[in-house]
Amino acid sequence: MHRISIQAALFALVLLVISAPSFGQVNISVTFGPPALPVYEQPQCPGDGYIWTPGYWAWSADDGDYYWVPGTWVLAPEVGYLWTPPYWGWTDGAYVFHAGYWGPHVGFYGGIDYGFGYFGNGFEGGRWDHDHFFYNRSVTNVNVVNVHNVYNERVVRNTTVNRVSYNGGQGGIEARPTHEQEVAEHERHLPPAAAQVKQRDDARGNRELRASANHGKPPIAATDRAGDFTGHEAVPAREAGAPYHPPANRERPEPRSESSGHPNTVVHPNDVQPRERPAAPNTGNPKLDKKYQQQQGKLQQKQAQENQKLQQRQEKEHQQLAKQNANEAKKQQTEERHQQETQHLQQRHEQQQERLQQRQAPRKKETPPK
Length: 370
What we know:
Layout: H1 2-18, E1 26-30, E2 50-53, E3 56-60, E4 65-69, E5 71-75, E6 82-84, E7 87-91, E8 94-98, E9 101-103, E10 126-129, E11 132-136, E12 150-151, E13 166-167, H2 179-185, H3 194-204, H4 211-214, E14 222-223, H5 286-324, H6 328-360
Parallel strand pairs: 5-14, 7-13, 11-12
Antiparallel strand pairs: 1-8, 2-5, 3-4, 6-9, 7-8, 10-11
Helix pairs in contact: 1-6, 5-6
């Protein structure tokens, strides 16, 4: 009788993490801090609609090492959306990673000065005007021949420029969220785009981007397009932000908690790993158990049909793009939308499963008052 109740409680806990209002939740914690931010130039913006996403240090639990994810230009997933960069923060005796996200406003990113408009508070590199993004040429590398939506606005930086890459702890940035940033934290958010996921995954597989190999000076610091590590616009770091001296006996910690129950590489329904069917219930009521199993079977059949329907529609859109000889920007926008559709469908399916399990959980009988 208690087994179903415990399963339902655990599932609800997972769902709470998945359906939180932001994609900036904790991913992993490490006992020593990341290297300083390297010094590098920003590649030229490839075209209208691209927004700069600064480079950052990520963590590879497999190697027990930090690795550099090069900064890059990415198409915004929706008109009016801006990027809040990820950051490392000192929490409960460890450096904790907070993932970045897209939203209507830029939220808190640890007060980290990533440069190129991300000077620790908000974003000064550009702004949306209706359905067009305008670039501030004073802090971003934009060629007016290719990009016409520009303006010049001088930015006064009131903080001391440094290359520290984490918030709090010894030597960290001492910044706290403003009221506006706290409000932005609870707005509707979108996860990193498919192009950003590719940039991160490619960086993780590149041994030269490991901090232990480049000592804080990555040979690829930024790219004009995600995943283009060998192109002409791939920019190396000029110098490390500071000497990097990691501890000799580095740990390989496991993730503390996941920001999402879905791998970020999931783009289409066919990429989703099949969910294991819950164990057959044993509440002591055979009729109730049989009814639950029937409902479970119907739910899985319905969800499989919805997955298939979405997969077919997305494949049809791929075929249309091929017929139209669509450019890379159009293809990337479509893939990013497909990723969002698939993740939203997964979340809805998990909510349905959780509600079914909650209905099956036996209710405690109330003890009548004496």
